Amino acid sequence: MKLLLTxxxxxxxxxxxxxxxxxxxxxxxxxxxxxxxxEKIGQMTQVDYEAVKNHADDLIKYSIGSVLWGGSxxxxxxxxxxxxxxxxxxxxxxxxxxxxxxxxxxxxxxxGHNNVDGTVIFPHNIALGATRNPAIVEKVAMVxxxxxxxxxxxxxxxxxxxxxxxxxWGRTYEGFGEDPELSRMLGxxxxxxxxxxxxxxxxxVLACVKHYMGDGGTTNGVDxxxxxxxxxxxxxxxxxxxxxxxxxxxxxxxxxxxxxxGIKMHGNRYWLTDVLKxxxxxxxxxxxxxxxxDQLSPNYKYAVEQSIxxxxxxxxxxxxxxxxxxxxxxxxxxxxxxxxxxxxMKRIDxxxxxxxxxxxxLGLFEQKYSDKALLAEVGSPAHREVGREAVRQSLVLxxxxxxxxxxxxxxxxxxxxxxxxxxxxxxCGGWTIAWQGKSGKVVSGGTTIFEAIKNTVSKETKVSYSLxxxxxxxxxxxxxxxxxLPYAEMFGDREDLxxxxxxxxxxxxxxxxxxxxxxVLLSGRPMIITPVLEKSSVFVAAWLPGTExxxxxxxxxxxxxxxxxxxxxxxxxxxxxxxxxxxKEYDPLFPFGFGLTYPSARAMK
Length: 605
Ligand code: BGC
Ligand code: BGC
Known about the structure:
This protein is an alpha/beta fold. Helix content is about 35%, strand content about 10%. The chain has helices at about 1-35, 35-45, 50, 55-60, 80-95, 125-130, 135-150, 180-195, 230-235, 240-245, 270-280, 300-310, 325-340, 345-360, 380-395, 425-430, 450-455, 500-510, 530-535, 550-555, 600-605; strands spanning about 45-50, 65-70, 105, 155, 205, 210, 225, 250-255, 260, 265, 285, 315, 395-400, 415, 460-465, 475-485, 515-520, 540-545.
């Protein structure tokens, strides 16, 4: 019976999808036939908004295929409506080109639509890794896609499926954890949520799985560094997430800045073409990272040749016309290479076909402009609820001495302290409005942990906040929120992950007074906490939870039980890093998968 059912399902899916795929191929062929070489190269060119904003006519002149907003590119009005207007006005330019092929717009919506003010900022991937729950990850991705579509933007450079083996790396939080299984399971969930049941649905966006591959495996955790590993290790640790994402229908992948045994991934024909497009039958397109091909050689012409012949289909160009390796330079260089037959017409047609296929599958030719009706949902209570749920599920309880948690809602006095307690920006971390993120009120909406505690306790409870916990007496309960200040790629690598001196002093001082210290750690990775762990009664790893701080209070006060499990082995000291599950010698402070719990108040009733 089961077999019969499977056969039936197969028959029907084949009978639907094959003609559809054929249809798309036909459309692609028809377009290709009408396109000049210049127009084809235009499709292969992506330009950073920052580079082209003062020459928007160039989008028409060069028939540019794609625009991105990089972490540092800024628009004037960052409200959802402002973004939608900016999007629409740029997309309009595509109608002035000969072929009228719509442009595809990419952005780093890596934890919600995080460049847009008023959106829900979700926990970063490391926190989602702690949930181990594909269902919540899929929901988060769905909401992200909806909020993106309200602004018109249909392509996110996400999910990052980095398997992170060294927490010194400043992008540790962008990956789901140290274990390939987490990246497989949650990367796939994310692709499904972003792309929806059908890419052309009004709430679906195109995913871009990144960074292919070995980004989390570099020596010493150096950003954009060198990953030294044999092929079998690459296939075991880093490839599985891509295999699953491709099977889930991902139609774009971003190669990584890092090298593999000294060779830059952006120029690696074996991994890009032979493995992805050959062995894994990837039907989508490959987009370079920001200026990624420039790193291949000081000789730009050679860099272009190498990357395109290695299998890159779209190149992310970032500097204004006329400057170093700018988009016009890329365009003229690639044209030269084609005319000299160094890059074949077949390669160009393959690249353009892949890009057009994705555009057609997205329904971009039918729905070019933003759907303003979706704007009402951006940052809505229903969307925030999904964020709050994700936060609850991501908290990892590392210590709970004398069952201090859950706190009673009618505790007489709750002291709140620490630099992270009333700081949305610190809760959100990097890639939040600003490329590197920012402390303070970086984004509107949301709830800080201090506010969340006030929302949760009884009317009689006194809640006070101060940076240094002043006013706390022996026997009081203090929620101390400490950790890392926002950072992102290039600026987040650390030789030392020990808690800062002021964070340590805060816990030590309070504990010396006889206060029960509940530490909530905001961080993009495990930190060295041994200096304060003994002085704290409770220790919660809250990662970078985003705007919905209420989820933290939900767990501290027992409305929900903590269920998060460590997505990384937690080291005792820096000397232990790299430390990963499966190591021959393995003696972490807390092992991979660790996480305590207690029954929720409801469960106890
Ligand atoms: C990052 C990518 C990002 C791209 C576009 C690069 O520097 O490595 O993760 O998608 O910029 O902003
Ligand atoms: C980032 C871009 C950013 C740029 C600034 C890149 O690595 O990905 O998004 O605008 O650096 O230098």
